[in-house]
Every structure is written in structure tokens, then in C-alpha cells.
């Protein structure tokens, strides 16, 4: 449970001072060497001569994981046993900082195309089979296919991110604490008359000072009487909060590629109606039922089974029920019987040090009213551990 915001903030600063006070936070040499070794071993298993990581527009997690450099405009990284470890970045003014941050990496200007620059260096290194990680536009794939046999390694990279190292768990803890500060600032400052855009500014006020950024802050503010939605929306509107509203939230602060997540439902200036209390009670019961089954060796399908009480109570969901987290939106991505996941992995077995978000979003059958609850957890050797410390349950605010 959280103490007061000030006490919680002070405790976080003391516990993670080595990370928060660093000029630019970085993982240990041994952690980074381990990551490089795992990628090179993947290259050996897949019989590729080198791996090319292509990410752009601040999207993607592999570049940061292998080098510590968060992607800006574009980053194209070459990694192989017989090739110089090089990253081509856009724009030119990003090169000085990238050279300072990127771990054991030669950073060069990508000029017109980082992929084109990489092709030249790979051809000089006599690379024939090339492993790819990232989402490449068709033109880039064409350019590479003309010179190399291409092997898609994105799924293999994703599998590497499922189980976290001890250092990564600590960074996940910090990201969770920063996320807790964001939702605590929201609960303390939200009031009638504020727009969802202003709510976003409140959330960010909780963690920006510590070097975190907003990975997402989704809101659904709607009257309990005449609700027009059942799940937080991805973009804030100009609608103003009013007494009698329900406010459901999904909050994630990002700290250098590591994110927390907490989901809660608030009610503005009035107690919830019986209908919303019922939905929230079902959501909390589903959360407990799912968490009770979390432990290493459990097939992910058992978590779906635990959600059956949602349908038994006459409700359904909109959001995914469970998903992996930390390094992307990871497996297992699970839904329920009435709203299955698009890509289900019910046979996947939970492992120690996976991180999951459990988030039963219970809604009416018409999906026009609902509540949100849940948070980020770590799978431990005998169960789970909450990484978020913001209190569970709904709260009347404002």
C-alpha cells in the first residue's frame, strides 16, 4: 500500500537513487553483455551471419534493450560476430548523445537511409543470411531482399523479453512506482470542470520530474446515468468532468523503456450507483480469481478459466484480460469466453520473473458502461508479487 504521496516519493528516491540520479541511467556491464550474448546465440541458432534491428519514430524496444539508446527518428543497428557493432541514426544532431549513451556501439549518421548505409557495411562483411528485428516498410524490405537472404527474428526477440533479469525487475519496480505517483496525482487533483486533457497533465505532473515520460494515460469520463462507453479511450477529449461521472483510467509511466501499469475506476463527487458497484465487485472478484492462479508452470488458459465469473454475472469485457509487459505488449495476451483475444496462447506456461498486467475491464453486454481495475505483477517462484502499490478498489474523488 502507498503511504502519503510525499513519503512514497521520498522512499522511491532513496531506494532507486543509483538509477534516478545517474546522468543517463544505464544497466550494468554484465547485464548488457548477457543481452549481446543472447542475440549472438540466436544468430547462431538461426544460422544468420548478422542481425539488423530497424526501428523508427520513437517506436520499438529492441534498440534500447541492446544499446540503451531510445529510438528517436530512426535507428538501424548491426550486430554480428564478424561485423562491427554499429548503429546508424537520424538525425545528425542526435549523433552526439547517441554516441554517449549507446553501449559499446559505433554510432554513425544514417544519411538518406540508415538501412542503405547498413547494407553497404554488411556487404563488405560478406553477410549473406541476415536476421531482421523490427517493423520495416516495404521499400526497406525490398532493398534488403535484393542483397541478402532474410530471416524474421522479431518473434524470437519477443520471446527473449518474456522473462526479466533481476536488474530488469528492479527497473520494472521503479517504473511501477512512477506510475503510482501519476495516478495518485490524478486522484488528488481531479475535480469537476477539468477536461480529460487536463487530467493527462495531472498524471504527468506526478512523474516527469523524475525523468519518466507518459507511455499512456487513457481516460473514460462519462455520466453514470447515461454512460456512453465502457473502457478508457486512447485520446483525451475536451469534455469537462461533472459530479455524477465515472472516470475509468489506464496509466503507464515509462522510464527508459520500462513501464508500469495501473488501472482504476473513480467516481466524481458522488457515490457510485448500484449498477456500477455491481460491475466493480465482479471486476475485483475476477482480479482475485485470476491472481490466485498465477504461479510458474500454470498454463495461461487457466487464467482465462478464472474469468468465467464475469460472464456468469451477465457481463463481458472490452479490453484484453491479461497481457505480458516490459519490453512491449507481450504474450500471453488473453481475453475471455465472450471476447477472445485476437492472438491467443492458452497453452503458454507462466514462468518465474515474467511480468503481467491483469486488468479485468467488466462492462455491460452492450459495452456502453463499464469499470476498469488491475495492475502490473511479477510472477514469483511460488505465486506473484504486486509491483503497483496504489490501493485497489474504487474511490470517490473531486
Topology, pairings included?
Layout (H helix, E strand, L loop, with lengths): L4 H11 L1 H4 L8 H18 L3 E7 L5 H6 L6 E7 L2 E8 L4 H7 L4 E4 L4 H11 L4 E6 L3 H8 L3 E4 L1 H7 L5 H24 L6 H10 L7 E11 L21 E11 L2 E2 L2 E7 L5 H18 L9 H6 L1 H5 L3 E2 L4 E3 L5 E5 L20 E4 L3 E2 L10 E7 L2 E4 L8 E3 L1
Parallel strand pairs: 1-5, 3-4, 5-6, 10-18
Antiparallel strand pairs: 1-2, 2-3, 7-8, 8-9, 8-10, 10-16, 11-15, 12-13, 12-14, 14-16, 16-17
Helix pairs in contact: 1-9, 9-10
Task: Based on the model shown, name its key terms.
18 strands; Creatine Amidinohydrolase, Chain A, domain 1; ten-stranded mixed beta sheet; 2 domains; alpha+beta; Creatine Amidinohydrolase; six-stranded mixed beta sheet; 13 helices
The separation of the N and C termini measures: 22 Å
Task: Sum up the overall morphology in one term.
Answer: globular
The level-1 CATH class of the largest domain: Alpha Beta
Our count of helices gives 13
User: How much β-strand is present in the residues?
Assistant: 15-25%
Count of the domains? 2
| Uncertain stretches | none
What is the mean pLDDT? 95
CATH topology of the largest domain: Creatine Amidinohydrolase
CATH second-level architecture of the largest domain: Alpha-Beta Complex
Number of strands: 18
Name the helicity range: 25-40%
What structural category arises from helix and sheet content? alpha+beta
Largest sheet entry: 10 strands, mixed
